[in-house]
Amino acid sequence: MSKAASARSSPGPGAALPPAGAGRLVDSLTPLLHEWLPRQRWFAGKGRPITGFSAVAATELMPPAGSGPTPGLLHLLVRVEQRATPDLDAPPVPVPPTDDCYQLLLGVRSALPPELAAARIGVVDTGPLAGRVVYEALHDPRLADLLLERLRSPGALGPLRFDRSVEIPAGLVPRLLGAEQSNSSLVYGEEYILKILRRVFPGANPDLELPLALARQGSRRVPSPVAWFQAVDGGAGQEPLTLGVLQPFLKDSEDGWQLALRALADGDAFTGEARALGRATAEVHLALAAALPTVSLGPRQTANLADAMSARLDATAQAVPALMPYVTGLRTAFDALTRSGNGHGQGAHGSGEAAGGGPVTRAQRVHGDLHLGQTLRTPDGEWSLIDFEGEPARPLTERRRPQPAVRDVAGMLRSFDYAARSHEPWHPDWAERCRSAYCDGYGEATGSDPREDAALLRAYETDKAVYEVLYEARNRPDWLPVPMAAIHRLAGHQP
Ligand SMILES: Nc1ncnc2c1ncn2[C@@H]1O[C@H](COP(=O)(O)OP(=O)(O)O)[C@@H](O)[C@H]1O
Ligand SMILES: O=P(O)(O)O[C@H]1O[C@H](CO)[C@@H](O[C@H]2O[C@H](CO)[C@@H](O)[C@H](O)[C@H]2O)[C@H](O)[C@H]1O
User: Fold this and answer.
1) Are 377 and 259 in contact (CB under 8 A)?
2) How large is the C-alpha radius of gyration of the chain?
């Protein structure tokens, strides 16, 4: 971030509220947030009652007007406390209490025009905004425009710091992308896309950190960030929270998921694209390994990896009882990681022996949640990777740890299976051929086929399918049969 324009005081109105004011504001919004927040797709704490809201920071990007049509824009960082309670319809499970921090951008008006009706959160009862309507600001072009203005002129505003690495043109017309996301994104003038992170954490967010590192490396496989904003004043030595990243918008690109479904519908093989995707993934991995530290995982760390996968399996089976009959079969994939002589450790990403014997696995920074929906093919036929946030449900420290690169390969292999399974009739051969072509392409670019790391690949594929079971149970219960079919296969049950 050192090359970025440095923070200096920012033009225009706006100010941070003092802690007491921020607290009063969030208290007055609490009844509305209770009702609205759990309904948002990006709210990660679904299925558990909210026990409280508290203010981390509140900043007026545009102070609410006393009256008249001018909208105010409030930037809130809100801590959401949730009790440890049973999850879904499952028997009690040890889901620990959480207090996650969410980023909210709220518009404030005295009356909401009809075109913003869908963005309405509600009318505030008490406190400084009593009688005003608050709404999801990203739906309001005037407020989306204001956010871009902040990014165009780097500087500090209370706890918020806006940085940019290039000049950004003014007057780009904003549009909000569809709601099916873990975060929220605004496209400006079909030239840039601003991703607003919703659940935010102290520490460098890989969604900014990795594209910046790849840009330094000269990688053309990832759109490089041109501006970003953070909260820097988290108190008591807390690291900054990454809040948003602006990147070039890949106009007229299509994502790999849509293209794969279209190929299935048209009876096309998709193997050429799968091979190209394998090469693109490999190129990103090579660039990440060159840009950021890599480590070797010895037998003990590999055993820890297997234990963590096993623990996730147990916790998920508690939360989603349909997984229970498969636990023993699935665990064999994790147990195999701790045995030597099983093909693990022979490929490019797991090579050599530890001093005391046993395999050594190479680990590096990875994408962490790679699937077809995270790939974009531009009109010139090139593939890019996006969304380096990692699996949103995992802690940031875990997501930022170097990991075996086959983890991403496994994610993409799962995705070909997902695509085939979500098409009627099911085409298992289509998925098999794509999976194979993807590994071929990956091997061509790295000189080593990921299938050589058979045990590691199977373990990661199993771990990913377990993650997907929980993800679908929480977010899209209708999709649960898709990962469950893979669970059936990976556990060694008869078709
Ligand atoms: N640079 C880009 N160019 C074009 N479209 C993009 C770009 N980045 C993201 N998108 C689109 O925005 C969607 C959401 O972005 P993503 O980073 O995956 O957000 P989330 O973490 O909320 O899922 C993607 O599925 C893709 O369609
Ligand atoms: O929101 P993100 O894109 O960061 O990722 C989450 O949502 C994904 C679904 O939108 C989910 O991916 C799963 O479904 C995909 C099809 O919609 C499929 O291609 C993936 O293979 C499958 O894992 C992802 O796991 C989740 O983290």
Assistant:
1) yes
2) 23
Model confidence over 68-92: pLDDT tens digits? 778 999 999 999 998 765 444 444 4
CA-to-CA distance for 185 and 197, rounded, in angstroms?
9
CB distance 414 to ligand 2 below 6 Å: yes
Q: Provide the token pair at 376.
A: 């974009």
Lowest mean pLDDT: which of 250-264, 296-310, 360-374, 389-403?
A: 389-403
Give the C-alpha separation, 73 to 161, whole Å.
16
Say which range, 121-125, 225-229, 378-382, 390-394, has the weakest mean pLDDT: 390-394
HEC string for 62-82: ECCCCCCCCCEEEEEEEEEEE
For the segment 192-213, the average pLDDT, to the nearest whole number, is 96
Could you give the domains of the chain?
A: 3-85+93-248 (no CATH), 254-490 (3.90.1200.10)
- The alpha carbon of 166 and the centre of ligand 2 are apart by a number of angstroms equal to 32
Which pLDDT score is estimated for 237? Answer: 67
Q: Which two tokens stand for residue 307?
A: 């234990």
Distance of CA 386 from the midpoint of ligand 1 (Å)? 6
255 CB near ligand 1 (under 6 Å): yes
Does ligand 2 lie within 6 Å of residue 474's CB atom?
A: no
**Cα-to-centroid distance, 37 and ligand 1 (Å):** 22
Instruction: State the ligand closest to the CA atom of 378.
Output: 1
The answer, yes or no, to whether residue 11 has pLDDT greater than 50, is no
Place of tokens 């990403």: 349
Distance, in Å, from the CA atom of 484 to the CA atom of 428, rounded to the nearest integer, reads 15
Determine the pLDDT at residue 205. Answer: 94
**Ligand 2 atom at shortest distance from the alpha carbon of 374:** 3
Shortest-distance Cα residue to atom 27 of ligand 1: 255
- Ligand 2 geometric centre to CA of 409 (Å): 14
For residue 236, what pLDDT is reported?
58
pLDDT digits (tens, 9 = 90+) for 43-64: 988 778 899 999 999 999 998 8
Query: Over the range 289-305, which residues count as b (16 or more CB within 10 Å of their CB) and which as e?
Result: bebbeeeebbbeebeeb
SS (H, E, C) 177-202: CCCCCCCEEEEECCCEEEEECCEECE
Verdict on whether the full-model pTM lies above 0.80: yes
In which residue are the tokens 């085939």 written? 420
C-alpha distance across the termini of the chain, in Å: 51
